[in-house]
Amino acid sequence: MLTAATWFHRFYMRYSLEDFHRQDVAASCIFLATKTEECGRKLRDVARICQAKITGVDPGQIAPDSKEVDQSQTTILLTEEVLLEALCFDFVVENPHAELVGLFDSCNVDPLIQEYAWSLAHDSYRTPLCILYPPKVIAAACYILAQRIYDGPNSPSLDARISASAPSASLPTPPTHKPPSPDASRFAIEHYSFNEAEVLSVSEALNILLEFYSVQEAQPHLQAILSVPPPTSTPKLELYVPAPVSNNVVSSTPALEGQHGRTPNSSHGGNTPINSVAPNGPF
Fold first, then answer.
1. To which H or E segment does residue 70 belong?
2. Closest listed residue to residue 150, CA positions, set 210, 110, 95, 100
3. Which residues are CB-contacts of 219 (< 8 A; sequence separation ≥ 6)?
4. Domain 96-226 maps to which CATH number in 1.10.3470, 3.40.50, 1.10.472, 3.60.21?
5. pLDDT tens digits for 132-143?
6. Helices and strands in the chain, H and E counts
7. What is the CATH number that goes with domain 2-92+268-276?
8. pTM of this prediction?
9. Domain(s) of CATH 1.10.472.10: residues in the chain
10. If you ran DSSP here, which 8-state letter would residue 167 be given?
């Protein structure tokens, strides 16, 4: 799934959401990832699960030989051709989870911090971090944020945790005026031997993660994350816009959905592959 999510982001670096429906692209990314990651699945099974997710019904209620599944298979294959071109046939994908494993093995990390960092790394794929920064930067950001959540609101800020550490007294360098970082969080920075530019990237990644959580629907388990102030060492990015709250959400939902529960057909563009095969299909 991590590989498929990376390709999903890469695809929309080259194409617009108005040209290719995100559900078609997502299904094609998953199908291609099952092949490149050597965990193959039948096309019909992928199409059937895709239809189950779109319609919100149990997969067992969808017949494998139904018309909808056949059309979904066609869409996946046609979109896969465009996906391969967008990826330039580059199937190598690295993820921050592998970096986190190495980080955990290098020091005695509390299991709860490991769980937090692992979950943050999962959620990072709901942001464009995987195409903006290398895996080790994302891993360091997840680890530092996880430890800040674990330490609580009265612990050092994120700025302090990624600040430059004081130089060794044995080095002929002037003293730094930046506050020393807490040793545990600073371990991630030192483990990867980050330079100043990479530390800045970690700060930017933290900003993106915190911004992503700030626009999510309020949930009790997010309160600890939402209480963390973002780093001030980098300007705050504006990648997400909170969804507008409407009193007519429930009544307007049926009008916004396409056939079989699919999102609006207006999000299809002229380049959507299925348009050339079944323009009047259920998608």
1. helix 67-87
2. 110
3. none
4. 1.10.472
5. 999 999 999 999
6. 13, 0
7. 1.10.472.10
8. 0.74
9. 2-92+268-276
10. P
